[in-house]
Write a structure and sequence with these properties.
It is built from 10 helices and 14 strands. By secondary structure, it is an alpha/beta fold. The strands form 3 sheets. It has a 6-stranded parallel sheet with strand order 1-4-3-2-5-6, with helices on both faces. Helix 7 packs antiparallel against helix 8.
Amino acid sequence: MELFIKIDEIKKTFDNPVVTIGNFDGVHLGHQLLFSEVVGKAYRNGGTSVVVTFDPHPLKVLRPDGIKLISTTSQKIELMRFAGIDALVILPFDHDFARTPAQDFVDRILIKSIGVKELVVGYDYAFGKGRTGNIDFLRQQGKEKGFPVTVVEAHYKNDTLVSSTRIRELVTQGRMRDVRSLLGRYYQIHGKVQRGKQRGGKEVGFATANLKVSEEDLCPQKGVYVTQVLYDGKVYGSISNIGYNPTFGDNRLVAETHIFDFNRDIYGHSIKLNLLQHLRGEEKFASVAELSAQIGKDITIARGVLAEGAKEHLLSCEERLNS
């Protein structure tokens, strides 16, 4: 996938490009359907599938209280590459760019720089100053300037509208199974393993890999989760506590993860943490011994959840092979 982080990096228009525009926070199932439409049309027409998005997210700039995002820019890039997109154009977004008239965006960016031959957008998309670049505007532009416009309708999963807003709500409630249903994958935390106070192994009896969690980012409900750690091309079962570790009176928000059957030194290494299921809220225990005993119980439950998940995955694969 070719990556362009500003419009001036595009030196010539793309070959027969099929284009979509959006913020695509989370790259959820609805976004994936839209990308599938773009990739399919580009393939059938011998063209290029192109995604245009923005960084930072426009609401981070336009809303005083900002917005807490499901995915980082690097995660979006990775997910769009996985979706088979040929070219990704990331436009820097600021207050000046927000004042760009919709007409200017179409003429200068979509037509002159990208060379759009076909446009695919979500059912509720609008852009440009005053959000005047709505579906009706784009359809009219397409008629006048020779590019058909396809609108991908809203997508529902189990009678729930798949939307970034709904997914954010579910994440903050710790409803990770519902989050997975709408994302089409596990919700993930990325980061480098930090050196903590190293109490996990010495005092509590369960060594942990710690990831810093920012209050500025979308934070799951505090508490204990069944998790998976992705490291060095492998997946390890694990259990994580996201919170402030009240038993020790800490005040730093962190994700502390005990990785099962793992004894490597990974301080400073990047890992990905899949959140599978919220087990319980964060608690303050009367003693370290009481905390250690509860972690032992949590680990037993977590191993059962992971084993059941592996069994369900195996059965699902067998069903696909036999169908």
